[in-house]
Amino acid sequence: MSIAMRRSLTATLAISVAATLLLAGCSAGATGTSGDRTLTIGQVAEPEKSPDPIMDGSLAGYNYYYNEFDQLTQLSADGELTPRLATKWTPNADFTTWSFTIRTDAKFSNGDPVTAEDVAYTYNKILASPDSDNLGYMETLKSVRATAKDTVEFDLNAPFSPWPSITTAISIVPEKVYEKLGSDGFAKAPVGSGPFTFESYTRGVNYTMVANPDYWGKAPETKKVVFQTVGDEDARLNGVISGSLDIALISPNQATGFNSPGASVKSRTGNGSVFLGINSTAGVLANAKVRQAISLAIDEKSLVSKVLSGSGTANDQVIAPSVAGYVKDAATHEFDPAKAKSLLAEAGYNGEKITFQYATSGRIPLSSNVAQAIQGYLKAVGLNIELAGTDQATLSSIIYSTVNAAGLYLNTWAPSTLDGDMPVTNLFAGGQNDYAKDPAAKELVLKQRTVSGDERIAAFAALHKLNVEQAHIIGLYTPNTDYAVRDGITWKPRADGEYVIADITYAK
Question: Which Pfam family, giving just one, matches this sequence (predicted)?
Answer without folding.
Answer: SBP_bac_5
